[in-house]
Amino acid sequence: METHKAKIKYNDEKYFLSLEINKDTYEIPLSEDLPVEIQKVFNALIIELKNGIFEFELEEPNDKDIIYHIATEYLLQLNTEIQDIYSEMEQHNLLEPLA
Amino acid sequence: MKIDIHVHTKKTKQGDPPTRNIDADRFHEIVSGTDVKIIAITNHNVFDLDQYNSFCETVGDDFQIWPGVELDVLENGIRAHLIIIVSPTNAAKLQDVMKLVSEEYTPDNFTISLEEVIENFDSLNPIYIAHYQGKKPDLSDDDIDFIISKTDYPNRVLREATNAVSAGIFISHGHPSIYGSDVQDWEKYNNVAVTLPDLRLAVESFEQFCLLLEKDQVAINTLLEGKRFEDITIKPFSDNLPLKFKIFNDINVFFGAKGTGKSDILDAIAKFYSDKGIICKKFEAGTTKLSDVYDIGCKDLKVDLKDYGIEYCNKEIEIVMTASEVDIVNISRYHDYYSENLTNTKAKKLKINNLLLSNTQSLEDDFEKIDDTNSQVHDFREFANESEEIKDVLSVENFNKLISILDEAAEKLEEKRFLKFTAQKSTTLFNKIIEIFKKEINKKTGHPIKPSTTGFREYAKNRIKIEKATKKILSNINIDIPVMAEYVGNLDEKGDLYCKTIVKFHDGTSQSQFDPLDNIKKTPQKDFVTAINTINNCIFTNSLFNEISDLREKEDIEKIQSIRGILVCRKCFTIDDEEYTPSSGEVSMILLHKELQEDKEIYILDEPERSLGNEYINNVIVPLIKEKARNGKKIFIATHDANIAVRTLPYNSIYRYYGQNRYKTYLGNPFSNSLIEISDQTEVKDWKDISMKTLEGGKEAFGERGKIYGNS
Fold it and tell me: Is A36 on the interface with B (CB under 8 A)?
């Protein structure tokens, strides 16, 4: 299983959970509710899953503040759910990469 | 009357018993005492013209004597017997040929190859009768095939059996067969003659017999077993007077001037058999449209997609049409949870609050699999236990073993099923407990609930479900349904006419030449296919549900509940794959041909010659009608056409006549050359004269018929 990097980023006074898959970076907004942006990231994750199972590992920041706890919990849950979905895709023969 | 195609009138070989010798008077006396009306003299390797002539002179018209010979054939070192019978008019020629081929031999050492037989005897227009199987010494199938391939008269090659039973067996295998007495002792001929083949029809001459052989591939079958007939009484006319006559399981031709009620009689016959529950319908040229017969409008086209391995996809269409977005968990919920410190000491100790939800889907799938297998094993065990067929084919020991193995499998599957069930339910319960505890902590402490999921699982599951459904729909509508080509008929030089049926799924492009198969317009069909393709391309985009929503709003889209709803179809006539519209004459040809190609017990044809040329009638229709007759079907034809009335050699000709203010019905046939009025047996007409006067055209037809009678 591949392990991709996840980082907490701070831009324009907003926090993001940045997920790096190969050369692509997907950002989950952590400072505000932007479900459409998260859906975009989820879509990208599902497409990526067709290439194989992976997980994210959070790069530890210097400051272990509330954002860190949120990001840690979020990634923990996301990694579990990614694994579940991969198994399901595998079972239903949906792993062929999209054209 | 009986026929004996194999008698010996003299001892010619050393092995022949002297009891085969007979003089003309005794021959006449013995044969006259039997029902034998045709006898062929077939001595071994000798044809004695003087004896033949003296016998003929003595016998006179009491019965027919046909000249013949039984040859010793030597083929591949194996000796066999082959009977040659020729017309009495060729008796002298037969002697000449025999003298030529047997010049250097005695009857005892004479042999001849099959090639020499054909070379020397075929010009005599003979009937060949080969000893076959039980009739020793016999020719092989290859030898007989050789004769058939070389002779100009392949329909005159018969197999000689030992008796009626063997002949019946050969006939049932498609081999024309006959048997003769092969007389050993003339003093016992009376007893032997009783068992000889019977001819229902009076065969007047060798030529007539040959014509019958030409008529029927298995003519002997017809001749031996005879044609069945039945008396029918119908009331075809408004006066309600009954008309009673014989009907044969052969060709029954009705002829007579126009307006003599032939069509009414056919209608009454159709009703007579329909009332008995036998499907029959009068075929009348020019009353039916070819496009209706072949359902060119596809009104009655039946299509079951399963026949082509295509699934209807009802469930999948419902999934797509009713799909809706699944909410994901807001980040603010995580903020809420981590922003407030949990102060309640007991709540802090509850580790369950930090546990993640487990996936139950794979556990559910596992349980379903084992449950399904378990239930199939149970069903099979029950089936096996009750099946007499399985008990029949297995020994008691093996049967018990089978049941025992199934019991063992069922027991182990049941254990495994229970474990899977437990795993699935305990995980569900576990997830439930996490949720309940979180809610309770929230209730007791006011501390926000910790989210158990990001929402990715449900979000992805929803998309995957749509992807799966869409892919299945697309993979099924991308399967090609084979084009069906139904043979319609032959249009001579133009070639074979086919009715092509094309059924396919609407592909989103213009389908101007096609019609929807069901009552769904092409616009929603097009909308559906286009939308499904679009949806498939944007399953993992944020516009997915906009596309689904657009699809739902299309007019009449709800009518498409399975992919059958997007089928379009087209039917057309083609020749060499090119579309073709047959002319009215061609339509007549085709419809009649189609009628005759249907496998029915009764065919009723009213003036089938209408709009048809003589060539087509002779080359296509007459052979087809004759074939039906050979197969014992009842064919009723009202006709003015001599080709049909004569060339088909009907067993039954029914002549309708109107004169002196009354209608008359005469029955007869070409073989008896007579037509007898059904209510006055003394009123007899000449079949040939009446046919010549009444039937139109077909000089050749009468010429052929003339062969039967030796005139034209």
Answer: yes
Whether the CB of A47 is below 8 Å from some CB of chain B: the reply is: yes
Is the interface score ipTM higher than 0.90?
Answer: yes
User: Has residue A28 got a pLDDT over 80?
Assistant: yes
The residue whose two tokens read 């007549």 is B588
**Chain A partners within 8 Å of B459 (Cβ):** 39, 42
What is the pLDDT, as a whole number, of residue B199?
Answer: 66
Torsion of CA B571, B572, B575, B578, to 10 degrees: -100
Instruction: Read off the pLDDT of residues B455-489 as tens digits, 9 standing for 90 and up.
Output: 999 999 999 999 999 999 999 999 999 999 998 88
Q: How many helices (H) and strands (E) does chain B have?
A: 26, 22
A42 near B456, Cβ under 8 Å? Answer: yes
CA A13 from chain centre, in angstroms, equals 21
- Residues in A closer than 8 angstroms to B365, CB to CB, are 91
Residues of B engaging A, defined by a Cβ cutoff of 8 Å: 327-328, 330-332, 334-335, 338-339, 356, 359, 361-362, 365, 450-454, 456-457, 459-461, 463-464, 467-468, 471, 540-542
Q: What is the mean pLDDT of residues B292-319?
A: 92
Question: For helices A66-91 and B331-339, what crossing angle results, to 10°?
Answer: 140
Over the stretch B67-123, which tens digit does the pLDDT of each residue have? 999 999 999 899 999 999 999 999 999 999 999 999 889 999 999 999 999 999 999
Residue among B70, B220, B213 nearest B151 (CA)? B213
Of A28, A42, A73, the CB nearest to B459: A42
* Closest CA of chain B from A35, distance in Å: 7
Is residue B219 very low, low, confident or very high in pLDDT (cuts 50, 70, 90)?
A: very low
In the block, which residue shows the tokens 């009620």?
Answer: B261
Question: Is B508 exposed, middle or buried, given 0-12, 13-18 or 19+ CB atoms closer than 10 A?
Answer: middle
How far does chain A reach from its first CA to its final CA, in angstroms? 23
- Surface of A (53-82) touching B: CB under 8 A: 66, 69-70, 73-74, 76-78, 80-82
Nearest alpha-carbon partner for B698 in B711, B712, B684, B686: B712
Note the residue count of chain B: 712
The DSSP letter of residue B649 is -
Two tokens at B406?
């199934």
User: Quick one: CA dihedral B242, B248, B252, B257, positive or negative?
Assistant: negative
pLDDT bracket for residue A6 (50, 70, 90): very high
SS3 at position B575: strand
Provide the residue type at B697 as one letter: G
Q: Do A74 and B359 touch (CB under 8 A)?
A: no
**Contacting residues for B619 by C-beta, under 8 A, at least 6 apart:** none
pLDDT bracket for residue B160 (50, 70, 90): very high
Q: Which residues have a Cβ under 8 Å from the Cβ of B345 and sit 6 or more positions away?
A: none
Q: Are B205 and B177 in contact (CB under 8 A)?
A: no
Is beta strand B243-248 parallel, antiparallel or unpaired with respect to A24-29? unpaired
Please list every residue in chain A whose beta carbon sits closer than 8 Å to the beta carbon of residue B332: 32-33
pLDDT at B700 over 60: no
Written as six digits, the tokens of B566 are 């997007």
CB count within 10 Å of CB A13 equals 6
- Interatomic CA distance for residues B245 and B666, integer angstroms: 9
Whether the per-residue pLDDT at B268 is higher than 60: the answer is yes
Report the percent of chain B where pLDDT is more than 90.
Answer: 54
